[in-house]
Amino acid sequence: MKEIILEKLNVQFSTAIESVNEYRGELTIIVKKPKIRDICFLLRDDPQLQFDSLRDVCGADYYRHDDRFEVIYNLYSIPNKFRLRLKVRMSESDIHVDSVVPVWSTADWEERETYDMFGIIFDGHPDMRRIYMPEEFEYYPLRKDFPLMGIPGSLPLPRK
Amino acid sequence: MDTSLQDPKQKILRALEDQDTNITFDDPLEHDMVLNMGPQHPATHGVLRLLVRLDGETIVSAVPDLGYLHRGYEKIAENCSFHEFIPHTDRLDYLSPLANNVAYTLAVEKLAGLEAPVRAQYIRVICAELARLAGHLVWIGTQAMDVGAVTVLLWGFREREKIQDIWDLLTGVRFTTSFTRIGGLAQDMSAEVSAAIKKFLDQFPESLDECEKLLIKNRIFIDRCEGVGYISKERAINIGLTGPALRACGVEHDLRKDEPYLVYQNIDFDIPTYTDGDTLARFYVRMEEMRQSVKILLQALGKIPQGPINASEPKRVLPQKERTYGKMEELIHDFMIVNFGINPPIGEVYHAIEGSKGELGFYIVSHGEGHPWRLKIRSPSFVNLQVLPVMLKGGMISDLVAIIGSIDPVMGEADK
Fold it and tell me: Is B239 in Cβ contact with A78 (below 8 Å)?
């Protein structure tokens, strides 16, 4: 299965693949950010691959100068019983990535959560709002520079 | 002055729309009504809040609002060691805490390259299946009560109480179990526990049949569930449903079979699948799943071998507490693991189990330190709740509670 995926991706997106890595039997492919939606369409619609469900989207903050943030897509193919992880990297100055809601509608809330926690903006998302935190909250709690105890006064309290 | 404010209807509408939310509805018709349901509402199973736009009794659109139970467990996980996070997993799906313990420990073990001994794996299977029964028993009661049958709730809780008594014997607590350890378990399962489980399993199928008879011969229950909250197979897959809700749409997908973990490949069981995709189908899937769990439990109890319950990896697996008082080596290892953690190698893994609500997974990134760099909880309730607007649209207001009940969300897990 791994060979088929890489072969298909190499035919159409040979320049978009940054690295391929396998750890504990899990395949991870890091792809270039502008191509993510096209790659997802290919993975979903190809009759051999059939990645028909997206199980998870999440962000990660690596707290480094280049490519600080990552968005991780956890794909699953029910017919092939195969799991694949896609990743895109981005720096803090260009914190936009194409939304994959047109491919899988699961991504709707998952991307909202990623936005809420990391401030990563998904272009083309139908409803880019915070999901857990109140809308007027100014920070992104899962970023590494957000303190564990929170920021005093950042959450509006009910008026007395 | 704004003319819209003078219109009394607009005034009422504005008062109904809470100022704390800026949820906008497309195309507000004149005779529509916005109903706010929750976060404190008995039929939303916790603190789910729904804003429903109604045209008469028909639901035009619904917007779920989450976050009332958000405790930031992913942030907490980044700041405590791998062992310290186990008690927090109890509070995710608080109806079946043992399954969360198992899921988290399996993910950490995959990351660290550890494997628990066979006996521990069988005990974990028993834990996971007891947790599934406990979760489904609350579901059957609340689902029935949502559509007006109170008896089943009491009967379901009566059975659940027996499971909690077993947990009491097995883990020492009834509710927040924190039973698993990385590389093993907190303590062994005694003969007394297996006898208690056997005794419970002897009478449980009969009690379950009684509960089922109360419902499937009940005209009101069938009428309120049949054809309600329908979702097609393609839509369900695309929106990411997992667990019983997906299997009720005719997709035979169960991680216990598709990505076998623990010792499920040694155990014979079926995946109940129905094709109707409505609330009644989800009811039948869960009922059948409970019977399969009984089958799994009986086999696991028969096959469980004797042996150690903790992997022989003294530098990464916590020693038995009694031994740390008398043995120097154990004391040192205990000190090192508690203070500095188990430091799995640099890498990232995702491991999921089939929880009672669906795919419960943990994605962990390790930088070789004692605590995870990033931990993401893939909670089934969160993803499954996304389907609510789809299922509710065009339905009746009275079906709303039946549909929420059939998705079976646990807000502790959805809000993390």
Answer: no
Domain-wise residue ranges, chain B: 3-65, 73-311+343-415
Kindly report the nearest CA distance between residue B271 and chain A, in angstroms: 15
Which pLDDT does position B28 carry in this prediction? 54
- Pairwise CA distance, residues A55 & A73, whole Å: 8
- The residue of A21, A53, A146 whose CB has the most chain B CBs within 10 angstroms, and thus the best one to mutate to test that interface, is A53
Task: Note the ipTM here.
Answer: 0.92
Please, what are the averages of pLDDT over each run of 10 residues along chain A (160 residues)? 83 85 90 90 88 91 89 91 91 90 91 92 89 87 89 77
A13 with A71: CB under 8 angstroms? no
pLDDT above 70: percentage of residues in chain B: 94
The whole model's pTM is what?
0.88
Residue B8, exposed/middle/buried by CB under 10 A (0-12, 13-18, 19+)? Answer: exposed
- What is the helix, strand, coil percentage profile of chain A, to 5? 25, 30, 50
- B229, B216, B244: which is closest to B139 by C-alpha? B244
pLDDT at residue B217, rounded to an integer? 86
CB A32 within 8 A of CB A20: no
Q: Classify domain A2-123 by CATH number.
A: 3.30.460.80
Give pLDDT < 70 ranges for chain B: 1-6, 12-13, 15-31
> For tokens 């920021």, what's the residue?
A151
Q: Do A106 and B240 touch (CB under 8 A)?
A: yes
Second CATH level (architecture) for the domain B73-311+343-415 = Orthogonal Bundle (1.10)
What are the residue ranges of helices labelled H in B217-313?
219-225, 233-238, 244-247, 255-258, 279-303
